[in-house]
Amino acid sequence: MLLSVGTGRLVPMQTGGSPSTQAHAVRPAEPADLPLLADIEDAADQLFTSVFGDVDWDPPSDGAERAAEPGILLVAGDPVVGFAHVLFLDGEAHLEQIAVHPSSMGQGIGTALLEAACLAAREAGFTEISLTTFADVPWNAPFYAARGFAVVEDLSPRHQALRAHEQAMGLDRHGPRVVMSRSLGGPAPPLAATS
Fold first, then answer.
1. Which of 2, 73, 127, 157 has the highest local Cβ count within 10 Å?
2. Domain-by-domain residue ranges, the chain?
3. Closest CA to 75 of 126, 140, 28, 136
4. Which CATH number applies to 2-183?
């Protein structure tokens, strides 16, 4: 089961696969996972130095802070090697962050987290999910475009506010940023009752 943090709502998700994929199965974050998330995000952010040089971004958000926000916080692995954080704000689902520790990259964990986040948002009743990302960084916009996301030209007030916040943080000095979204195919059908 997935736990929609901040609301306590449970959202079901199918899991399974081969033993190798089960080692990094996506699941809801648990309290013991939360202290690990900032280090994972910080390690993943270091990859940007190969593109931008030194970066002076704000420190990563604390896992407990993320868990307190309305949305879904998913992790992969035990111990955790990656996470996805989807915010539910102003009636929109927004993928705030996906981070995978560099030592675990290249194993499909980022894609598994992305697909689980999209499924969870759909199960929560959203028909679309958005994100903001760098347009020209290979593991950013091109990664998401290959997985069904498209650049949004007509920004909602929420997206305008997100972009203004990113500009104030100075992210745009590293390269163009875009808002992208993906259709989730309409609301999920009601779940069958189980006994």
1. 73
2. 2-183
3. 28
4. 3.40.630.30
Q: Which long-range contacts (CB under 8 A, 24 or more apart) does 42-45 make?
A: 43/101, 43/102, 43/103, 44/99, 44/100, 44/101, 44/102, 45/99
Which pLDDT tens digit goes with each residue over 77-126?
989 999 999 999 888 999 999 999 888 888 889 999 999 999 999 999 99
Q: Report the distance separating Cα 150 and Cα 127, nearest Å.
A: 15
Cβ proximity of 7 and 28 under 8 Å: no
Find the angle CA(88)-CA(124)-CA(85) to the nearest 5 degrees.
45
Enter the tokens of residue 70.
Answer: 């309305």
Residue with tokens 């590293």: 174
